[in-house]
Specification:
It is built from one helix and eight strands, in the order H-E-E-E-E-E-E-E-E. It has about 180 residues and is α+β, with helices and mostly antiparallel strands.
């Protein structure tokens, strides 16, 4: 009788193992999910730029939630430093942003500005003298600034790369 009972208990437990594995997989899914970060105010908002290399690297590629796509400026800038900007569609008190550059180990120098109306711009972060060659730059704005538009102007970059941005995330609260 003991052997029969152990066999019954083993079958019963075997039915619950796939259920347990499925439950654990569902709970852990956000850890490896390929879904874009929806907390970014810039995600899928209208973007524009000073120039584009080609349609495959248009301005919208820098805030599409995919770090494997990027905006790339024309390699022959005609009117000064290249810039990329996003229209957040509403005014927000901006607290920071994250910029992922196309290349790791390359230095990009730039400034981040915000505007309510695209006429008057205020400096949110000056990185024109940065020495960082990190691919991802996390910036905190010292004072929450109200803005609807965010512009990143690339002022310099290392040899072997060009003005371009793989992904931009903008953070803040409703104004």
């Amino acid at each position: 009788m003991g052997a029969l009972r152990r066999q019954f208990e083993a079958r019963k437990a075997a039915r619950f193992i796939p259920l347990l594995i499925g439950l654990l997989a569902c709970m852990a899914a956000p850890l490896w999910s390929a879904e874009p970060d929806s907390s970014s105010l810039a995600l899928h908002k209208p973007a524009s730029s000073s120039s584009i290399e080609n349609d495959e690297h248009n301005a919208a590629k820098a805030n599409d939630g995919d770090p494997d796509t990027s905006w790339c400026a024309d390699d022959e800038p005609e009117n000064g430093p290249e810039w990329w900007q996003v229209d957040l569609k509403k005014s927000f008190d901006l607290t920071g942003c994250q910029i992922r550059w196309p290349y790791d180990g390359k230095k990009y120098q730039y400034k981040v500005e915000g505007s309510i109306d695209q006429k008057k711009w205020s400096l949110l972060s000056d990185q024109t003298k940065t020495k960082s060659a990190s691919q991802v730059h996390d910036l905190k704005f010292h004072k929450a600034s109200p803005a609807r538009f965010v512009r990143i102007t690339v002022t310099a970059f290392d040899d072997g790369c060009w003005a371009g941005i793989a992904e931009v995330k903008v953070f803040g609260a409703k104004h």
